[in-house]
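Progress note, sequence design subtask.
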């Protein structure tokens, strides 16, 4: 996720005494195959809402699986871009983003309600997530959409980015996110995909980064990309390491 947060933002710039609890989330419902196994490990699921991946059938299946495993359910809206998996920036006005995100949250919410489940959070996907981390107008459009659907929903965004600040201004709960499987730039933003170092491929490196970010108190939730080739191995190793370090892995209340 190619965020462009300023130099005083992001995981590298946020320091505290660390955490005793942290959430482990994954982007799921994208047709990548390991969802059921990942849901036995992670504590929050960001479910594709049909714009970059998924459809009503996959949303229903993923919601049901999340319920079986007691995993918090969240919407994962994106630019309407199945061709590029939502990872290309689109020329969308804030009002169009508001409409896109509102429709996607409502679609997943309807599926969840039909299964007697409820949404807990919203986390934008791919290029939309990254633009919202640096562009306040886009971040505000997402915040407005979340508030319009359900002001009790939590907004998940890049630690130190504009989405976190925007959500708080709109009176929404905001949860700062860091990444175990993505490389960071010195300013705390993420290395753009396609650039060397953007993706972490070694389990040991991902575990070390997750532990460092947790101990530094850099964020409240750690993300793993469910479409990554090593997602399941990363999830198992990271959860084991976090718990071994005395950190409770649990969804954000």
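Output:
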């Amino acid at each position: 996720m190619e965020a462009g947060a300023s130099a005083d933002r992001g995981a590298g710039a946020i320091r505290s005494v660390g955490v005793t609890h942290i959430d482990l989330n994954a982007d799921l419902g994208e047709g990548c195959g390991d969802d059921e196994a990942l849901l036995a490990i992670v504590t929050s699921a960001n479910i594709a809402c049909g714009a970059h991946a998924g459809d009503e059938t996959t949303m229903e299946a993923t919601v049901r699986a999340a319920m079986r495993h007691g995993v918090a359910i969240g919407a994962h809206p994106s630019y309407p871009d199945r061709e590029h998996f939502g990872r290309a920036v689109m020329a969308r006005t804030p009002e169009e983003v508001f409409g896109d995100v509102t429709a996607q949250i409502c679609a997943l919410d309807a599926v969840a309600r039909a299964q007697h489940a409820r949404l807990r959070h919203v986390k934008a996907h791919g290029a939309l997530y990254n633009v919202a981390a640096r562009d306040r107008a886009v971040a505000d459009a997402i915040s407005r959409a979340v508030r319009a659907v359900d002001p009790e929903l939590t907004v998940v965004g890049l630690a130190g980015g504009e989405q976190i600040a925007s959500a708080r201004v709109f009176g929404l709960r905001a949860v700062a996110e860091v990444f175990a499987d993505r490389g960071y730039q010195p300013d705390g933003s993420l290395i753009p995909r396609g650039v060397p170092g953007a993706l972490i491929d070694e389990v040991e490196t991902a575990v070390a980064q997750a532990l460092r970010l947790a101990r530094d108190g850099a964020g409240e939730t750690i993300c793993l990309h469910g479409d990554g080739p090593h997602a399941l191995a990363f999830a198992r190793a990271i959860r084991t390491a976090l718990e071994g370090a005395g950190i409770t892995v649990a969804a954000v209340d």
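The radius of gyration is 16 Å. Work on this subtask will continue into the next period as scheduled.
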